[in-house]
Amino acid sequence: MRLENLQQIIEIEKQQSVSKAAKALYMSQPALSGALNHLEDEIGVRLFERTPTGVVPTPEGTDILQLAKQIMECTNQILNYGKQNQDLYGEVTVLITQAYGFLYSDIMVEYKKQFPKAELNLQVRTPEKIVEELSQGMANIGVTLWELLPEQTPEVLKNAGLQYETFGSHSMMAFVSQDNRFAENESVTLQELRQEQFVAYSPSYWAATNRKIQASNEPLVMTDRENLKRLVSSGRAIALMPETFAMHDLYCDQGLIKLIPIEGSENFSKGIDYLLYPAKRKLTLLEQNTIAILREIFTDIML
Fold first, then answer.
1. What are the residues whose beta carbons fall under 8 Å from the beta carbon of 16, sequence distance 6 or more?
2. Which conformational region is residue 36 in: left (phi greater than 0), alpha (psi within -120 to 50 degrees), or beta?
3. What is the crossing angle of helices 285-302 and 59-80, to 10°?
């Protein structure tokens, strides 16, 4: 078994396809299939199986892939040892929530500026999905608003094997159009909002928040940040979201969307900025430097 064999199975899992993985690795599909078959024979277990949605790891394959990723991370750490930032290479997967969508380009630009030879895989996930994927070793670092809901506690993160840092806090706000009946209010209660048509950016988030609201109408679900705000600005729905959604946003800057503070919503209206990473293993040099970049960006912008 060679290190490239580990790189190959990691890429197959990432692409969920042998042919796509072969293309990404600049190999022919028969060559990659042959290498996979040889590795499975050498290890003595089947690593992948075909499904209608693509190639997925077997239970044994999932365990092997987790070990393979750890080996590749350690290898990169050895190869990067003593190098300056400009020379660091490898891949880091960072997960952020929609609440920080406005920082997506800032993070990408700063990362490439500091680490031109490294690859940043930056993806948007819900808070719960970020915790899940980090705990399973599917990502390296996460940034999320946490504690917006009662079940989002620091203990959940500790039990998932995650270390965390906090930066600031952000209130939950009612996002309404400039013509909404609450647009000029200094504040609004959840009870006053119950009859409104809501739009939410994820079904799971709405299910949790609605335990407090008890809304009369079924929500619209709009996972795309831009379309969600277009819907709110048109007056067809309102949204309950952290105030970070208004940062560097044209709809809010131009007054097309108003933010109304929510009154009397204890254990619901305040979210904390959390930077998450594994607690049970030593971080690679690239991971440490990526965390430093994120720490600087979030400290500067959120405070």
1. 53, 54, 55, 56
2. alpha
3. 90
Give residue 19's identity as a one-letter amino acid code: S
On whether the pTM is more than 0.85, the answer is no
Which helix (H) or strand (E) segment holds residue 41: the answer is: helix 29-43
What sign does the dihedral 231-243-104-77 (CA atoms) show?
negative
| Largest CA-CA distance found in the chain, in angstroms, rounded | 69
- pLDDT tens for the chain, 303 residues: list them: 888 889 899 999 988 999 999 988 888 889 899 999 999 999 999 999 988 888 999 999 998 998 888 888 777 767 666 555 557 778 899 999 988 888 899 899 999 988 888 999 999 988 899 999 999 888 999 999 898 777 889 999 999 999 999 988 888 899 999 999 999 999 999 889 999 999 998 887 788 788 888 899 999 998 888 899 999 999 999 999 888 889 888 999 999 999 999 886 555 667 889 999 998 888 888 898 899 999 988 887 765
